[in-house]
Write a structure and sequence with these properties.
By secondary structure, the protein is α+β, with helices and mostly antiparallel strands. The chain has eleven helices and 17 strands. It has two domains: about 1-125, Phosphorylase Kinase, domain 1 (2-Layer Sandwich), CATH 3.30.200; about 135-400, Transferase(Phosphotransferase), domain 1.
Length: about 400
């Protein structure tokens, strides 16, 4: 027991900043680790990864390299190794270890444990067979592996995972970086939300918190980019972007379809208003798509990316919509572009639609639209520039795909 406690003290020693109110305190983490036996001996991980051999390397991010390994009991693992030169990684290491210590859900990647050995700091996860969603979705030679049934189940699984984080976990957790590269797919194609380095605990008695902006270009909600206003609706916005990417096979941040739309969200919205929403569908889905479900998911995606966060549905509402047959849903208002200001308004009463095979065509005008005042941001890997402060337009910390 003393050895366990000393190891955990060593784990926390490099992080001298006192934990914020949103984080679990160090004493609680020690108790969790003792109860759940989440400490891995360094020698075990060296043996599992063949001394972190290059052939076992899965990839590398701002945190550091990730290696595949196999434990003596046959379990396959993924080991995140903190880069010695990563200052941002130390904060993310501590944050991820604390937030995932008690998280258990089928659609959230499972943190098996931690390891600290001298200067080495490692996080140990379940290994997920099919890697990340972006490696299939945005590569033309692999996109056909994702037929409509799989894509629909991925959408529903991500929604359930976010619902768990927002409402059913020990505290409300806002992920802050929902995107295709942070969705892992297991051998049964079950999606798992990963990479909690930028996640935040959310105070129950607040509607939003003001925080430094951190996220990925193309997925961030406008109120978050412009003002640093963070709430669960920021994750809902990112989810909506991801839904439209899954249906279209197009990446929002590098959208180029030679249309008069500046991004995927605007393109999808304009076609939806013309009753032609199915035109955004990835051509590889033609033989497998259930057109009513596709149209419904497009409408759900557009509802999630509305400029006014108050009009976006909660993840509870999204899960309910996905679990029912296509029927009556609210009419989406104009999407908010990351970096745009939005004008709040009340949705007109009785404004709803019925999803059909070609979407819903309506000539009704909407009273909530985002303006065209756009803040242009440049994505940089592991940036450390200051976060956005209200109305000052400072550049946010962004990460690339």
């Amino acid at each position: 027991m003393n050895k366990l406690k000393n190891s955990l003290q060593q784990l926390m020693k490099p992080f001298k900043n006192s934990p914020s109110k949103e984080e679990l305190d160090e004493e609680e983490l020690e108790k969790i680790a003792q109860q759940e036996q989440k400490l891995f001996p360094y020698e075990t991980l060296v043996a599992a990864t063949r001394d972190f051999h290059l052939t076992h390397k899965l990839g590398e991010g701002g945190f550091g390299p990730v290696y595949k390994g196999k434990l003596i009991d046959g379990r396959e693992i993924a080991v995140k190794k903190l880069s010695h030169s990563s200052t941002q990684g130390e904060k993310e290491f501590k944050n991820e270890a604390k937030l995932l210590a008690r998280v258990q859900h089928r659609n959230v990647v499972n943190l098996l444990g931690y390891c600290v050995h001298m200067e080495e700091k490692l996080l140990v996860y379940e290994y997920v067979f099919n890697e990340s969603l972006d490696k299939l979705l945005f590569k033309t030679n692999r996109r056909e592996e994702l037929d409509w049934k799989r894509r629909y189940e991925i959408i529903a699984g991500i929604a359930r995972g976010l619902l768990y984080l927002h409402e059913d976990s020990h505290n409300c957790i806002i992920h802050r970086d929902i995107k295709a590269s942070n969705i892992l797919l297991d051998d049964k194609w079950v999606p798992k939300i990963a990479d909690f380095g930028m996640a935040r605990l959310f105070p129950e008695d607040q509607t939003h918190v003001n925080t430094r902006v951190a996220g990925t270009n193309g997925y961030m909600a406008p109120e978050y980019v412009m003002h640093g206003h963070l709430s669960v609706k920021a994750d809902v916005f990112s989810f909506g972007v991801l839904v439209l990417e899954l249906i279209s096979g197009q990446r929002n941040s590098s959208f180029d379809m030679h249309t008069d739309a500046q991004n995927l969200l605007e393109w999808a919205y304009k076609l939806y208003k013309k009753g032609r929403s199915l035109e955004i569908m990835d051509p590889t889905l033609a033989s497998s798509a259930a057109t009513e479900l596709v149209a419904m998911c497009i409408q759900i995606g557009l509802l999630c990316v509305q400029g006014d966060p108050q009009l976006r549905p909660t993840m509870h509402r999204v899960v309910l919509m996905l679990s029912k047959k296509p029927g009556h849903m609210d009419e989406p208002t104009r999407p908010g572009l990351p970096g745009t200001r939005y004008r709040r308004s009340r949705r007109p009463s009785g404004l709803s639609s019925t999803v059909g095979t070609s979407g819903y065509r309506s000539d009704q005008s909407h009273t909530s639209e985002s303006t065209s005042n756009t803040l242009t941001t440049t994505a940089t890997t592991s940036a450390t520039t200051p976060g956005v402060e209200p109305d000052r337009g400072k550049r946010p910390m962004l990460s690339e795909e």
